[in-house]
UniProtKB/TrEMBL annotation:
The keyword Iron applies. Residues 15-115 form the Cytochrome c domain. It comes from the Bacteria. It comes from Ideonella azotifigens. Keywords: Electron transport, Heme, Iron, Metal-binding, Transport. This is C-type cytochrome. SUPFAM superfamilies: Cytochrome c.
Length: 115
């Protein structure tokens, strides 16, 4: 039973990167680029998966995100995308969050391919 329970989060988190790409276009593309070195209102998401938060030298991150000490792992992205203002109080992210766990898993699957 424990082995099955341990497998469930990984299966859910795998996500569908094609659906995630559509979710990115609908929810993220206005403020974030996936092109390396191209910041918009928000920083480029190129290579952001597994990267330390606030790591790009050419973007003005909030003090809160700089001090957060987080890295964009699957788990951290899931928490952040659920409710950014709760995950990093005082951050500049204008997005209110993505409450659907399946949609977050799909979006994270897509973001993990942008490298």
């Amino acid at each position: 039973m424990l082995a099955l329970a341990a497998m469930l989060p990984a299966a859910r988190a795998a996500g569908d990167m094609a659906v995630g790409g559509k979710l990115y276009a609908e929810n993220c593309a206005e403020c974030h680029s996936v092109k390396e070195g191209r910041n918009k209102k928000g920083p480029s998401l190129f290579g952001s998966f597994q990267r330390k938060a606030a790591a790009l030298p050419d973007f003005a991150y909030s003090d809160a995100l700089k001090a957060s000490g987080i890295a964009w792992t699957q788990e951290q992205l899931d928490a952040y995308l659920t409710l950014p203002k709760k995950a990093v109080p005082g951050g500049k992210m204008k997005f209110d969050g993505l409450p659907d766990a399946k949609e977050r898993a799909d979006l994270i699957a897509y973001l993990s391919t942008i490298k």
